Amino acid sequence: MRIERATNLNSLKRNIDQDSEAQLKAVKSILTQVREQGDAALYELTEKFDKVLLSELEVTEKEIEQAYSEVDDEMIAIIKEAAKNIEDYHVQQKKQSWFITKEDGTLLGQKVTPLDSVGVYVPGGTAAYPSSVLMGVVPAKVAGVGRIVLVSPPGKDGKLPAGVLVAARESGISAIYKAGGAQAIGALAYGTETIQKVDKIVGPGNVYVALAKREVFGTVDIDMIAGPSEIAVLADETANPVYVAADLLSQAEHDPRAAAVLVTTSEELANQVAEQVELQLKTLPRQEIARESIETYGAIYLVDSLSQGVDVINEIAPEHLEVMTEHPMELLGKIKHAGAIFLGPNSSEPVGDYFAGSNHVLPTSGTARFSSPLNVDDFTKKSSVIMYSESAIEENAKKIAAFARLEGLEAHARAVEKRLGESEHE
Amino acid sequence: MRIERATNLNSLKRNIDQDSEAQLKAVKSILTQVREQGDAALYELTEKFDKVLLSELEVTEKEIEQAYSEVDDEMIAIIKEAAKNIEDYHVQQKKQSWFITKEDGTLLGQKVTPLDSVGVYVPGGTAAYPSSVLMGVVPAKVAGVGRIVLVSPPGKDGKLPAGVLVAARESGISAIYKAGGAQAIGALAYGTETIQKVDKIVGPGNVYVALAKREVFGTVDIDMIAGPSEIAVLADETANPVYVAADLLSQAEHDPRAAAVLVTTSEELANQVAEQVELQLKTLPRQEIARESIETYGAIYLVDSLSQGVDVINEIAPEHLEVMTEHPMELLGKIKHAGAIFLGPNSSEPVGDYFAGSNHVLPTSGTARFSSPLNVDDFTKKSSVIMYSESAIEENAKKIAAFARLEGLEAHARAVEKRLGESEHE
């Protein structure tokens, strides 16, 4: 891993997947086909892209039972415990409706209401991610969403992975459908005979899924478009290089475009981590992916002080940040931009990916500057509540009318003035 | 106004402004020019589109003083009071960081951090909306955003409207720039010599502004793309038809594509409101706009019960909802989808546009199903905080590793297992 002074962070700038005109055209055509033909389009496109002719779109109770028999009991217990931890964490995010009253009788407030329905997209292909099912579904469930459905592309055998089905059942899904790609997004946005339209679509996917989500945004709500992910570790001389290297590699194995960065005040640690990375890389099954990530986007930055280190971190705005310093909690106040902050030697990043309870759907590629982890608020919306009293309108109608006239909106002015004792039915 | 049974609500479906390929191409070219040429592009494009060659982009202290001398003292006092009311309401929305601890020493939490910088777009042209300045800037200020800048296209005299400048100063803006259209969005997203890049852009604008916001989304955050707005009134026989008609018209005068709808159990009220609308329309300065809106998208729907009325409202998901029934508060629990809910005879919609304190930037065109009024949360982001204890990792490392292996991510599994007493520097 290259070691350098923290002066130029340009190496971290990676572009979000560039979509071609051709891809966008294909996505638009698929969306139109699904909107016009419904289920028939889904069967046809699934045969075309996933190479399987389905007999039905919805996963049956029997398939779910089958999945439970395929996953061993110990693993089911771990999934249950993870789901419980995720629920316990997200329950803390729930917001209450509130109101304030004034002595004149006016009431102002904010009503919090769960969304009616949500669709969770789970990618298929070589990687099956039961943990992503939990992370998408549990917060929606905690928010009180009435109908939560899951869509995921089937394998050539027409099935979804057993782990995905178990996680879906454990997190309280309403229905599971075999559909992937842009066609699944179209079905969730417009509805088909089998798949009802939802209000919001969440979950990661390939470039076609991302483009389709962008296209239907407005018709339904979507979560963020995810880019390549990253980890940054801020460490001083007290950090264990074995831990640091292992955690950097846990991110690097995801994707050749993942970034793993160490920011440290200790040149000794820098050298030891570089050595450890090389050593640990050798025996990794996904060595090739991890090596490409480390060589292209990996870096060790030396800084003069932890304070400068925090500045570098805020500049990067990493998806995951680990702080392995003598007193990590003391730095928390200065850390402005990071999706998830892991403090101390025991908070290895996979702890958050699977088990601690916080969400692993996090803002990537520097968007932690303005975005948040997936959370319960994403599955609710607010309504303002205004109940003006008679004395309040009498006191303020003239002021409100004046403001409306300043903006040239006479009907606005008259509407409030009507409340000032004009004849009831003029 | 047409009166019909509430069976078919299709008349309310209006499309969000369709953008043409040509418009998108123009916007992309403007964004590129601003990114490449900075200030020079802004001067050139402002001359081209706003017909004025500016001497500088930033509004000077002298211009603000001048604005104060142009707005009368009473109006300044009203703007101050409105700003105070908006602040008082939005302060209630502020969220605290929180944490939970476990007896084993684990700490899990969520850190709430204000955005570093925000740009508020304020449309120019014939309509100047000082109230929109307050609604965009005050919540950002309450959230604790460090730098809040305003951009708005100058008139041919090279000036911004006095009311806009006064509202900007009263709401605590950091800087005001004369720039509009897609070029202003480009400046906020990429930065120029004069205008620093921001993290989020909010505020309504024409189709070019909307397209530009959509293009830069991801580089910066944006608020919702607004469509045509609407009001729905739910009323029984106790409602005053004069009030109902006046409030419907206050929405209709905004835009020929605005929608104003009454849903009522009372045929008598329906007839009286239709009459009143006709009567009140006659003397409105913006009669032409309001009439087109009422004739095209206005409707009175008769329902058999208030319960059916609420169902119709939830189907519409209106931006503004007024409830003028004998006991409006009793219906609040059943109302699921509405941007702002005005209860009782005194809560005329303009009360919320200008003065009560709630935000007037609301989800339009049915997006209240999944979107919220502009609020303090929009100007903050969250970071998860995970501090796992030594005993927690000892207890759970094997489970976490098993979950990682289920997903085929061996480096994840090893990272947590390293914590289980392997040699310090293997």
UniProtKB/TrEMBL annotation, chains A, B:
Q: Which residues cross the membrane?
A: none
Q: What broad class of enzyme is this?
A: oxidoreductase
Tell me the pathway: Amino-acid biosynthesis; L-histidine biosynthesis; L-histidine from 5-phospho-alpha-D-ribose 1-diphosphate: step 9/9
The record's cofactor note says: Binds 1 zinc ion per subunit.
EC number from the UniProt entry: 1.1.1.23
Task: Give the binding site residues for Zn(2+).
Answer: 251, 254, 353, 412
Q: Active-site residues? A: 319 (proton acceptor), 320 (proton acceptor)
This chain's function reads:
Catalyzes the sequential NAD-dependent oxidations of L-histidinol to L-histidinaldehyde and then to L-histidine.
Kindly provide the name given to this protein in its UniProt entry. Answer: Histidinol dehydrogenase
Native organism: Fictibacillus enclensis
Q: What is the lineage of its organism?
A: Bacteria, Bacillati, Bacillota, Bacilli, Bacillales
